[in-house]
């Protein structure tokens, strides 16, 4: 499906981003992965993806809180793979705390990484896509782009922002063969979710089991976590020609959470 195309996925050393990278590699795309982690583990992932795709596969450590590094990431992607056809703005972080205790540096980091990075990626990648007359931009938003939960003010604000940015971008490039959509998962079982369990236990005075069943899956009528592979498969569909009319959409994948 994606031979000859390049897919750039931010925050793809783990979780949902890694599942996106694997899905694109399986379709023969050149893949650029990004994110933090152990150098050996990342090289292992890069080599696995290269084996799968048979195409150029790069790792770039650009920090999504730094606009100049984001611009350089897109430039490198184009220079070394010949394009930047699919961009998944996926990198994201979380901090759980009431507003009155919320550290300002955490607020700034979440807005930068979860929201502003998507703008900077679009700013750099849209001209490249326009030149080819084809492009797919996917933002990993969240059910929190549509509704709120307490103690996640920065995350909820950033994800609502991502949804708005995605709509505005879709309108701007609607005649250029480029679609821009959010995928908004509910709770997906990844390190991001696992790591917020201790903070939620502390903030709400609950046990681990209570957080999993009464807080996380309480919101999800299916009582099942979404899987990273399900999110990636949805993203892959958006890259098909059959999905050319899906643009500016906030696509929920949340086990019915936002229907309730
Ligand atoms: P994760 O923690 O498994 O992965 C996050 C990735 O982002 C990692 O590769 C990490 O290294 C990278 N990253 C973090 N800060 C970065 C930075 N400054 N620059 C570059 N990369 C950075 O998390 P995940 O659950 O896979 O989340 C991926 C996206 O999906 C996030 O935007 C998250 O908000 C969103 N999301 C997750 C869930 C969920 O339940 N897990 C639900 C809805 C939306």
From TrEMBL:
The keyword Transmembrane does not apply. InterPro entries: 3-OHbutyrate_DH, NAD(P)-bd_dom_sf, Sc_DH/Rdtase_CS, SDR, SDR_fam. NCBIfam families: PHB_DH, PRK12429.1. The keyword Oxidoreductase applies. Keywords: Oxidoreductase. This is 3-hydroxybutyrate dehydrogenase. Belongs to the short-chain dehydrogenases/reductases (SDR) family. Its EC number is 1.1.1.30. One of its GO terms (molecular function) is 3-hydroxybutyrate dehydrogenase activity. Pfam families: adh_short_C2 (PF13561). PROSITE patterns: ADH_SHORT. SUPFAM superfamilies: NAD(P)-binding Rossmann-fold domains (SSF51735). Coiled coil: none annotated.
């Amino acid at each position: 499906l994606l031979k000859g195309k390049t897919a750039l996925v931010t925050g793809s050393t783990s979780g949902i981003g890694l599942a996106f990278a694997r899905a694109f590699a399986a379709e023969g795309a050149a893949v650029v992965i990004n994110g933090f982690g152990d150098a050996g583990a990342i090289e292992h992932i890069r080599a696995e993806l290269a084996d799968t795709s048979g195409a150029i596969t790069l790792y770039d450590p650009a920090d999504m809180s730094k606009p100049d590094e984001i611009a350089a990431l897109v430039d490198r992607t184009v220079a070394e793979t010949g394009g930047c056809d699919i961009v998944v703005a996926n990198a994201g972080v979380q901090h759980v705390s009431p507003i009155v205790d919320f550290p300002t540096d955490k607020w700034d980091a979440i807005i930068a990484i979860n929201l502003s990075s998507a703008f900077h990626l679009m700013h750099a990648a849209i001209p490249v896509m326009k030149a080819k007359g084809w492009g797919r931009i996917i933002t990993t938003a969240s059910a929190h782009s549509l509704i709120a939960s307490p103690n996640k003010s920065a995350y909820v604000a950033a994800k609502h922002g991502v949804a708005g940015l995605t709509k505005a971008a879709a309108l701007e490039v609607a005649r250029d063969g480029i679609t821009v959509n959010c995928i908004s998962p509910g709770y997906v079982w990844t390190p991001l979710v696992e790591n917020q369990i201790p903070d939620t236990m502390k903030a709400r005075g609950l046990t681990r089991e209570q957080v999993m069943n009464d807080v996380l899956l309480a919101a999800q009528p299916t009582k099942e976590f979404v899987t990273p592979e399900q999110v990636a498969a949805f993203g892959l569909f958006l890259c098909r020609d059959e999905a050319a009319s899906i643009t500016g959409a906030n696509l929920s994948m949340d086990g019915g959470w936002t229907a309730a």
